[in-house]
Amino acid sequence: MWAGAVLMLLSVPARILELVHPGFGLLVLPVVIGYTACALVAYWKVMTGTASFMRGAGDEAVAGDVLSARNIYMILYFCLLVVGLCAGVLAVFAFKVKSAVEIWWVGLLCLPLHWLFGWLFVLRPLGQARDALRHGPGAAPATA
Q1: What is the value of pTM for the model shown?
Q2: Rounded to 5°, angle at Cα 77 from 73 and 17
């Protein structure tokens, strides 16, 4: 929590400067790296803990699904991170974007992708674990 609070305090002045010119967005880079590291560590621990709990409950199949979703998400995350960084550098230096406000719509276009990833790699595996715990190991969950 302390790391998140410090990162939040550091991000405010850097974000204000970024609105003036996207080149100042580099000041936000350490803050973004910190937020990303905190979020990925938390995700890794939650999914690993869920898989461990499912193994303890005797359901290896669901534990494997949870770990598989975690690993696929991490790989996709880093691939998309590289693509996003390249697109940002290209926008600033090749297309001479003068303000971060000019590219705000990119975030809006990415919202459905975020929702899809959240469902595929967080909600669905945790839902499978919940259903397996409710119905017992290897039992098919009831459909609504």
Answers
A1: 0.75
A2: 145
